[in-house]
Structure prediction request, 165 residues.
Amino acid sequence: NGKPVKLSDLKGKYVVLEWTNEGCPFVQKHYKSGNMQGLQKEFTGKDVAWITVFSSRVGAQGHVDAEGAKKFQADFKTASTAMVLDDAGTIGKLYDAKTTPNMFVVDPAGKLIYAGAIDSKPTANPADIKTAVNYVNQAVGEALSGKPVSQPASTPYGCSIKYAS
Prediction:
């Protein structure tokens, strides 16, 4: 919506950063099933900020402009706190985001407490969601309960992010 988003403005909150690409079958697994939106709604309802990031370069598969991001939001009925356009890949490279989806959780002090895959089943099959360990749900749930995150990292899976050179 043309407004800058700064992580420093969210200090004091847990923040989930989600890299996405609508054309990626691994992203589609989680959006077409409603899994991603369910997590977004659950955690934003608990005062967790959820930032969806688009880091594909202009002209590459997965790139969206502001109107494309709004369409993505409307088509999938997302519940993100904000959607961020990162055409240059600046944010993605800072976090070393590799795939879509690639997930990160930041605690209220600004410390990265989880980085990796959304879940334990690196497939594009929505049926696998039911039997997967959802690492984001686990990390945020543990953190909100005052517990240490039992699995602070995993290997992300999905489509590669099409960064600008």
User: Anything to note?
Assistant: The longest strand covers residues 49-54. The two ends are 26 Å apart (CA to CA).
